[in-house]
Write a structure and sequence with these properties.
four-stranded parallel beta sheet; Rossmann fold; 434 Repressor (Amino-terminal Domain); alpha/beta; 352 residues; 12 strands; single chain
């Protein structure tokens, strides 16, 4: 039976309303900061105090709340997601898949934009580890394998989406098959009759860029065409980088008849540069991309590209993370999803 003060506090609240942290603190005889530490799963709370707070949470119908459901298992119902660029369409499509999957698990995501700054990323990870979230999904993390292993040794569950560097075998990761997607696109260009095909690669230290370049070279070699270094220009995954790389290719004495940009943004930059030089796509130069983000269908002409299942990557990453949280065995630690060729109007046969 509750004392008179407790009944007074309960009657002061609207009937059926969810109790606040202040209510729980008053009934438990502790500070609001202590209640917050319990809610966040912090270890610096005495066992007896923690049990008292949890008992009042349960008694006050807090168990109907998403957070309280997790408290019995020591979870917060929050999943941290680190993203290099909060406004890039590529990342937003992955985040949509993550959010949809978390909804099924009755959980929410905490977005941590890192802007590709390594120190900021490490700081954010350190923050989400200390009781704030149950686990994390790292999109294109900049950490080295050594740093990721150190994170894993602290028993903090995480899954990588599209690792920027090849992860070790015991790190759980989801990506597309970059090699296969690039080979398929190059075979498409070869089938149209192109033999002088240029590539605008991404940053050379990133796994996706190197795997796509390997697939590109594989298709050329299979067609009896040795890779030509002068036809490889380096971009930075952005529109501006694609434009600069295309300008470099347009200064060649013999122009390529087709250009394969390793993502859609760089393909858009290539289209801009080609138009500024008074050339037409695909009549003078065919242009292809990779990703199949919304921009690919908005260019003129519409962009031939490689479709990456970005939503599915996000959903599978959440599935793997929850299997890890529930200590269920994984069929594989590295999951590679299939890509598919999307043919639109930006590619065609070369001029005879």
């Amino acid at each position: 039976m509750e004392d008179g003060g407790g009944n007074g506090r309960r009657s002061a609240r609207r009937e059926g309303a969810r109790p606040t942290v202040r209510d729980i603190a008053a009934r438990s005889g502790v500070s609001r900061a202590t209640v917050s530490r319990v809610l966040n799963g912090r270890p610096d709370v005495a066992a007896a105090t923690r049990e008292a707070v949890l008992r009042h949470i349960r008694d006050d119908a807090y168990s109907t709340n998403r957070m309280a459901k997790g408290l019995s298992s020591g979870r917060t119902g929050l999943i941290g997601v680190t993203v290099p660029y909060i406004n890039a369409e590529y990342f937003m499509e992955i985040l949509t898949g993550v959010a949809q999957a978390l909804y099924v698990h009755d959980a929410r995501l905490v977005v941590c934009p890192t802007e590709h700054e390594h120190d900021l990323e490490v700081s954010l990870l350190d923050r989400v580890m200390h009781g704030t979230t149950d686990g994390a999904i790292l999109i294109l993390p900049s950490e080295s394998n050594q740093e990721l292993q150190a994170l894993r040794s602290r028993r903090f569950p995480f899954v990588i989406i599209d690792p920027s560097q090849a992860p070790s075998d015991d790190i759980v990761a989801v990506s597309s098959n970059h090699w296969s997607g690039a080979r398929t696109m190059t075979e498409h260009l070869l089938s149209l009759g192109h033999r002088r095909i240029a590539a605008i690669r991404g940053l050379s230290w990133m796994t996706a860029s190197n795997d796509r370049l390997a697939g590109f070279h594989s298709a050329l070699i299979s067609a009896g065409l040795p890779p030509n270094p002068e036809l490889i220009a380096e971009g930075d995954w952005n529109v501006g980088g694609g434009r600069t790389a295309m300008e470099e290719l347009l200064r060649l004495e013999e122009l390529p008849t087709a250009v394969f940009a390793f993502n859609d943004n760089m393909a858009v930059g290539a289209l801009d540069a080609i138009a500024e030089h008074g050339l037409r796509v695909p009549e003078d130069i065919s242009v292809a991309g990779f990703d199949d983000t919304n921009v690919a269908g908005a260019t003129r002409p519409k962009l031939t590209t490689v479709h990456q299942p970005l939503h599915e990557m996000g959903r599978i990453a959440v599935s793997l993370l929850y299997r890890t949280l529930q200590q269920q065995p994984l069929d594989a630690t590295h999951v590679e999803l299939s890509t598919r060729l999307i043919v639109r109007q930006s590619t065609g046969p070369p001029r005879r």
